[in-house]
Amino acid sequence: MDISQLQALQPYLWTLPKTAHEERAEVLLYGSQPLLKSMDEKVLEQITNVATLPGIVGAAMAMPDAHWGYGFPIGGVAAFDAEQNGVISAGGVGFDISCGIRCLRSNLNLADAAPLLQQLADRLFETIPAGVGVEGTLQFTPQQLDQVLAYGAHWAVKQGYGDTADLEFIEENGCVAGAQPYNVSTLAKQRQQGEMGTLGSGNHYLEVQVVEHIYDQATAQAFGLHQGQLLVSIHCGSRGLGHQIGTEYLMMFVKAANQLGIHLPERELACAPIQSPAGQQYIGAMQAATNCALANRQILTHLARETFGEIYPHAVLETLFDVSHNTCKKETHEFHGQTRTLYVHRKGATRAFGPGHPQLPARYQTTGQPIIIGGSMGTGSYILAGMENNPAFASCSHGAGRAISRNQALKKWQGKELIKELKQQGILIRTRSMRGAAEEAPGAYKDVDIVATDTEKAGLARRVAFLKPKVCIKG
Predict the structure, then answer these.
(1) What span, in angstroms and rounded, lies between the C-alpha atoms of 217 and 464?
(2) Could you tell me which of 470, 472, 471, 465 has the C-alpha nearest to residue 211?
(3) φ, ψ of residue 170 in degrees (nearest 5)
(4) Binding-site residue positions for Mn(2+)
(5) Domain 3-84+100-474 - what CATH class?
(6) Domain spans of the chain, in order of start
(7) Beta strand pairing status for 461-474 and 428-431?
(8) Which residue of 101, 123, 269, 274 has the smallest Cβ count within 10 Å?
(9) In which element (H, E) is residue 299 found?
(10) Residues paired with residue 357 on neighbouring β-strands, in sequence order
(11) 302 in active site
(12) What pLDDT, in 10s, does the model give residues 401-460?
């Protein structure tokens, strides 16, 4: 990105000055100068387009991991007020609705578990369905899926996938209100019939990680973390159902925008007023997809526990936290001294509630919400904690963020060679797609250390622990 067009407001906060007669909200980008320079130019164009949407409150913001996406940049955050004709955008939520990360802490240390890690990797690869079009053992009719869409992780626990203790540590306690399964098309449900309890492909993964470094000992203790401990992170979303909802409502919103005279600088920014029939219909479908994703990660948690139990009979996996990063949430925020009800779009951005937030479980009331910044399969990930006075409507980075496209990655790396190199580094990769492995090469991502550091320096969240991958199951 050419940052000569930006103005530094603080060392880790930048804005794009308006030109004469330009009508839009403020544009803010978080990150250090080197990180912003590494972003593609499209990020600035897209977040500036977001700033033109009706009813936006405050600024359109790009997190430190931002990169090009459909309509909104990934790493984009924007809040809208329904009472001021604010809009909801399917492109602002993303096609993989409620994609997120479930992090599990184990009672195992790497030193004890290491002799059986290869066996664990092989069994996880057999038991965790992953890959393009790969289905799981569960099969649903559209009518049966309605129960999943209505009750989320609660449905999964009721069916025996995990237990009620998990629910306290899932956002919205595992079930978002307002889900309308009947706003989801039959085609979307058909696409999901065999995909519950599956990872999918692309950047989705199940990763066994070791806590390699602690930055904040007190918060790590509150999170139940210690150096050398094994964790499991599950990164996936609402699979085919969410993608179909995103596709269908994007088309509906394009037509609605034309009828309502909403100017769309980019087709993928298609949106509708929150209070319009189309807007309300999408919100009901989006909430249903969110429940689908929460149930999906709950089933995968159960499968991971079963597999760990086979290899390590005394293993216990507890849910540390589960939070989505492709959502639009109705939330209450203080803005310019007023309490406002806002619809906060976070596309590739994680909710990051600070200490004392009423929606956090008692365990995290003094620390703030656990946040997972997922890195690449060869570098590492971070656990952070939410901070008071987060300036971005309680949002922060969600991952390392791509540095180059998948096509560019394919020209630079080969899957087999990459997996061999990672094995030499002590990281076991199991995948059905060598092409997919090459697309997800560690070098295709930004430096996760810089992203996490900049996230902290920008006042969005503070680092608690660094995790190093040991086993990665990819689609």
Answers:
(1) 7
(2) 465
(3) -110, 140
(4) 96, 204, 235, 325
(5) alpha beta
(6) 3-84+100-474
(7) parallel
(8) 123
(9) helix 277-311
(10) none
(11) no
(12) 889 999 999 999 999 999 999 999 999 999 999 999 999 999 999 999 999 999 999 999
